Amino acid sequence: MGSLPDGSTSSGRESTPEPEPLNSNSAFLHLWAGETASQIGFQVAALATSAMAITILHASTDEVGLLNALQTIAFLLIGLPAGAWVDRWRKRRTMIAADLVRVAALASVPIADMLGGLTLAHLMVVAAVMGLATVFFDVAYQSYVPVIVGPTQVGDANGRLEASFQIARIGGPGLGGWLSAVASAPLAYAATAGAYGFSALAVWRISEPEARPVPLAGTGLWRQIREGLDYVRSEPLLAPLFACISMASFFMQAQVVLVPVLVLRTLGMSASTLGGLLSLGAVGGLIGAIARPRIVRRLGEGRSIYLCNVIGVVASLGLPLSARAGSLAAAVIVAASVVGSFFLTIYNVTQMSLRQRLCPPELLGRLNATFRFAVWGMMPLGSLACGALAERMGVEAAMYVFTAGALVAGGLMALTPAARLGGDGDGARARALP
Length: 434
Fold this sequence. Notes:
Blueprint: H1 26-56, H2 61-88, H3 91-114, H4 120-148, H5 154-182, H6 185-204, H7 221-234, H8 238-266, H9 271-281, H10 283-299, H11 301-315, H12 318-321, H13 329-358, H14 364-375, H15 378-393, H16 395-413, H17 429-432
Helix pairs in contact: 1-4, 1-5, 1-6, 1-8, 2-4, 2-7, 2-8, 2-14, 2-15, 3-4, 3-6, 4-14, 5-6, 5-9, 5-10, 5-13, 7-14, 8-15, 8-16, 9-13, 10-11, 10-13, 11-13, 11-16, 15-16
């Protein structure tokens, strides 16, 4: 007798045991610690990469777009088979291996710098390898959360992990900017390698046994991939939302690629200032992660997804407007980032928790990989497109064009069946469907 997505059993007469509280769940606490360390390291390296490419290696806007594209191109190229592979493997081992690969890739940057051979091409190779390892880590990590926490705790667990991400966004860019300005950008890579090493150690210390994945007899790799795609396509709540999130991901990539160019080149600020602005702006995301349960209860799950997305995108209009704000440019960037990260965090955690809760456990790896393929797979395309557009139209104009596209995607989310979900998620499923 199996469990339903809301935690009840199929008989309707029995209930599953009360899940262990997250605060005393050793497996989740170790995962949380490892994920926090890796997110801080990622934020440090992301800022150091942009600062190094723009100010030291003198990359063009096209090259900055290509560098960002290489960080996520693996999601487009192998995102789908990665989900099928992860469903065949133990998630904990996959995460540890991915962390160790990232340690080796990052460590090569300060070594190349000491030998005098650091180039933009080297950074691009490191970005591609990092992206490849991240594909497997992220698919495994998202599939592991429902394994180590109870079905009713998935949203809370994701909220805590998202809060850690926002804490990393607060401290990471500032640390990365400080290291780039005071020491050297390659040292930021050494710090990031240490953070990923800590992440691998924390995940390794999870002692809770993980069940061996049940092999699917007679089922080939591509048939398993197709099963994941078929599930998403046939799921009435997820399929339309899936398309809108993918579209939004393409257009929102302009913020990642062009904000460093805007701050470092257009506004002439330093790397340490860029790090400080990003850190202050990320405070809104931390508050959003904490406030999310109350907002979802008030608005309902569906409205929280599309309303928070639209409001967050509207707030991001302040980023290109900062170029016209004169001495208030820094304040405008911080205000836009705080409001945007607050609402986009609520949107991200809510839509991720919805799909994790609805999906059967044996399909979680393929579901997460399918979403990553469509969402993160759009990021390299968006990076290349916004970099090329900015090279021809200018940074500000390109940001306005891409923000308009993101607003259209958010508006389309309001037309999906998921938009009609109430505050109790699965309980509202029947009311959301025709």
